[in-house]
């Protein structure tokens, strides 16, 4: 029978590396997913996931159990991501609905019903969505990732961000609206470019990639 997070944390505090490794194995997927949605690429996400668990181990003694271990871990991961973004002074993102579609749990596997054409279109949509999310503020990106990708409840998000439930709801609403506005502009721009491309059957009106 697997041990609870609380027991593993207590064992880890006493220097039990096997217990800490069990915590890492239990949460590494979710931590990587948070980092990936922030950074937009696997290399940076892998580095930040590692940084998160290093910070976790270093600060384990300070965990008093006022919140659940997972809430505390997500807070550590979010802070690591935001610190890295501030260092680089850049912003990245994804789209709310497509964040879910792009989640590893929803990526088509061999033998799925997706045709090659569907896969190409899906990848293009995800790329456009990532670009839109890149334009959001760090706070908006974080709260959308926690809600739409991680599936955290409002109460859990409030615990991670250490703010009120009302603040969480307000931020989620503003973040969704900001994302929808960027997706709308992206759609209008792509539609305009498509018309220019198709006019006269030439692509010369568009920049070459």
First CA to last CA: what distance?
55 Å
Order of helices and strands: HHHHHHHHH
Helix and strand composition category: mainly alpha
Low-confidence stretches: 90-95, 103-112, 202-209
Radius of gyration based on Cα positions: 20 Å
- The number of helical elements comes to 9
Let me know the average pLDDT: 77
Question: What is the beta-strand fraction?
Answer: under 5%
**How many strand elements?**
0
Shape type: globular
Helix residue percentage:
over 70%
Largest sheet: none
Summed up, what is this model?
By secondary structure, this protein is mostly helical. It contains 9 helices and no strands. Helix 3 (42-58) packs across helix 4 (69-88), helix 5 crosses helix 7 (138-149) and helix 6 crosses helix 9 (165-198).
Question: What keywords describe this structure?
Answer:
mainly alpha, disordered C terminus, about 210 residues
Question: What does this molecule look like?
Answer:
- With 209 residues, the chain is an all-alpha fold.
- Helices cover 71% and strands 0% of the residues.
- The chain has helices spanning 5-13, 17-39, 42-58, 69-88, 96-102, 116-134, 138-149, 154-161, 165-198.
- The radius of gyration is 20 Å and the shape is globular.
- It starts with a helix and ends in an 11-residue tail after the last helix.
Secondary-structure blueprint:
Layout: H1 5-13, H2 17-39, H3 42-58, H4 69-88, H5 96-102, H6 116-134, H7 138-149, H8 154-161, H9 165-198
């Amino acid at each position: 029978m697997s041990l609870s997070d609380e027991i593993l944390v207590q064992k880890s505090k006493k220097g039990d590396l096997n217990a800490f490794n069990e915590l890492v194995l239990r949460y590494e997927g979710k931590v990587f997913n948070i980092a990936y949605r922030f950074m937009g690429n696997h290399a940076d996400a892998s580095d930040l996931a590692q940084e998160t668990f290093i910070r976790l181990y270093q600060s384990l003694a300070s965990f008093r159990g006022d919140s659940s271990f997972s809430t505390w871990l997500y807070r550590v991961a979010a802070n690591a991501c935001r610190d890295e973004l501030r260092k680089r002074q850049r912003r990245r993102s994804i789209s709310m609905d497509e964040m879910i579609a792009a989640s590893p749990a929803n990526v088509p596997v061999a033998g799925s019903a997706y045709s090659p054409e569907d896969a190409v279109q899906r990848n293009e949509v995800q790329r456009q969505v990532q670009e839109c999310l890149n334009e959001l503020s760090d706070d908006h990106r974080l709260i959308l990732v926690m809600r739409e990708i991680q599936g955290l409840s409002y109460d859990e998000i409030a615990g991670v961000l250490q703010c009120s439930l009302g603040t969480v709801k307000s931020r989620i609403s503003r973040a969704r609206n900001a994302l929808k506005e960027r997706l709308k502009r992206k759609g209008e721009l792509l539609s305009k470019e498509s018309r220019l491309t198709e006019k006269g059957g030439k692509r010369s009106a568009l920049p070459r990639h």
